Amino acid sequence: xKKLSMIVMAVSLLLSCxxxxxxxxxxxxxxxDFVTEVDGKPVALYALVNRNGLEAAITNYGGRWxxxxxxxxxxxxxxxxxxxxxxxxxxxxxGNFGALIGRYGNRxxxxxxxxxxxxxxxxxxxNGHTLHGGPDGYHTRVWDARQVDRQTLELTLLSPDxxxxxxxxxxxxxxxxxxxxxxxxxxxxAKTDKPTVVNLTHHSYxxxxxxxxxxxxxxxxxxxxxxYTPVDETLIPTGAVEPVEGTPLxxxxxxxxxxxxxxxxxxxxxxxxxxxxxxxxxxxxxxxxAAMAASHDNxxxxxxxxxxxxxxxxxxxxxxxxxxGKGGVTYPxxxxxxxxxxxxxxxxxxxxxxxxxLRPGETYISRCxxxxxxxx
Length: 376
Known about the structure:
This protein is mainly beta.
């Protein structure tokens, strides 16, 4: 009997050793919770890790940045990106947590534009306008994914002619690289076979404090811009560029996000807070800091670099306080900020704005770098 018991124990031990350990990210996400199929295409979660131990987790469903582990002033790894801890919640949500946005990020007025004398109609999903490529934009697509190495993920997508009303077959490649200087470097390339408009961007929601159930009003913000594009009541640019000087939109020097956000300033009232495009001073130089944010709670700093002419600061004004994210945490109103590098909103309908047209034989190139650091 004793011999039989020893045999049973030995078999049990072998079986337990043979079981695969559940694969998880540094942020605690279970990889298996992101494995599914959407429209017959496989979805998964990819973890990028640099030599310093930072980790970015990205799913090819919508190219979404699911988590980002960055060190605080004491070296503690902190997840600074809001989102969900399973793919089902991303699919069910109408929001853009961490999403890759296209074909045209931000708004196109009256859901249409004219290019080379031809009018194009788009789906209206925001006050009669088209926002972020429409309700079925690239944030809902399954991108073809290839993990090049432990620090690099390549996503590709063919957006067919007529996709959401946009002309031209658009072949897109987006590369996420977690660099050894602690940045997620996002490079976009696209080619078309017909004249079209393109404005790709990223819509990550950041809370640097390590307290994802808190608001970001105490975060410091700095934007390297002397001007912004004022909007009408439906958040469509008027076509003007106005100076930030003397307004609550002046972030040329670091200031708390919440310091002036509720002032009775016309533009803030229209947006319910900050939801505006700043006209950057960087002149397309990706080496110049476009924007900076910092949490004094834990010393985490985010710097943004881009070759784009504009950047949108959005302060989560429409966050409802009912959205339950990773770890069962409820995200409150203004529980995050977004810094979206971009061509100006509604550029296809604004002759004086930087041109957002891509033609056959040209290559659309855009770059956005989110670099993380910590200070005492």
